[in-house]
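Q: What would this chain look like folded?
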Amino acid sequence: MTSVKTLNPKAEVMGRGAALFMNINAAKGLHDVMKTNLGPKGTIKMLVGGAGDIKLTKDGNVLLREMQIQNPTAVMIARTAVAQDDITGDGTTSTVLFIGELMKQAERYLGEGLHPRVIVEGFETAKKATLQFLETFRDKIEATDREILLCVARTSLRTKLYQDLADQLTEIVVDAVLTIRKEDEPLDLYMVEIMHMKHKMDKDTRLIKGLVLDHGARHPDMPKHMENCHILTCNISLEYEKSEVNSGFFYSSADQREKLVAAERQVTDDRVQKVIDLKRQVCKDGETFVVINQKGIDPLSLDLLAKEGILGLRRAKKRNMERLSLACGGFAINSAEELSPDCLGYAGKVYEHVLGEDKYTFVEDVRNPTSCTILIKGPADHTLAQIKDAIRDGLRAVKNTLDDGATVLGAGAFEVAAAHNLMENTRKTVEGRAKLGIEAFAQALLGIPKILAENSGYDAQETIIKLQEEYERGSKVGLDISTGEPLDPQMAGIFDNYLVKKQVIQSAPVIASQLLLVDEVMRAGVGMRK
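A: My prediction, written as structure tokens:
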């Protein structure tokens, strides 16, 4: 400490005892903030912004990103948990709670004079043993087993939304992922468009096997509702354009000027005429034609299309152009010369929905969709934001299950089994004081089902003893949050992601170990020289 002061007299230094005390207290503080959110019976936090905007959430990722955390140790833990969400899409709250539990358990032994290095060695041994146990505990699944995917999505969504809404969104999320899934190709969740409309109730949220565009036709005479539609997706300019180079035209009479203007206009009119000719070629009785263009369509061109009964949408977003080809079939064209019947897609129904000043165009009843839209509805902005965050996590949970080809029993079943394995098997293979680190790790694992029990209104110690006794009889058991009694998660359909569990067990002990080995905190950066 003195040596640092010699180098920089302005440095603020915290000794070993104070540094450990700060780190442990920061981890416990963040743990206490987050623990009430865990599980389906967890409570909700209200975040109020500087401008008075309100966000209601129990999603750990949203809380950690938007809470203003000042303590450097707590910031480090929060970043680890947010990285967990970026990698796996879930498990932020579990990561924070597990780190907090590890630090709590370590504090007991540190108070009795045990060196942090001994505890860290025990943590490392326990971590390796738990990861090995996870490999034997997981259940392999078939990618075609829709029922398991529904259970995984339901387990994820119920921790973030109330039960009735979560159960409704479960079907939507699973169907969305199965719609975009292609054999032998990685899943791209960006092919699921998430749209929101501040309209009706949250239970009116639905899956559209097609697309919803957030704009409508720009001509009053264009049809608002069409069936049996040929869809042309294109990136062609159907408006008058200035030349790209500085050029001048010289004319000697008004007649020459009129011809010049007409010739300029003729270029655009010819392109529009080619589209109209294609429509006349392919459309039989009862069939209609829709043009969705990434570039502009000027008023004169819109008028020509409207007279022909064609619905024209301009300035479509690039991401929607890609999704349209996947949803409706056909392919996007970049020049009028490429126009042919082969480039057209198909939709059974295209209609416009007006909501206040906003227009939405629905493209539905497509034949072989590999892109789809989840249309979120709700009465208020905070409801929409809450559902949107939950759906993102639900989509990632289903994707992880398909990628892993495995699930892990939920409701605290894995934690109870892993803690039993550490105490009964791993502890016996280690000699000396490192056993205490393994005991601390096992107790920290049991912290998760304890918090589940507390949040459900039951006595934590009594619940854990019941679960351990039942597990010792040979049953894989989790906690029934409705009764506080042990239950079989397999029968109840409670499954967690294998990837999420693995990531939590890998990352949490690393951060806890690093924080325990800190013996000095120095605020002696470049900014201190001022």
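The chain is about 50% helix and 15% strand.
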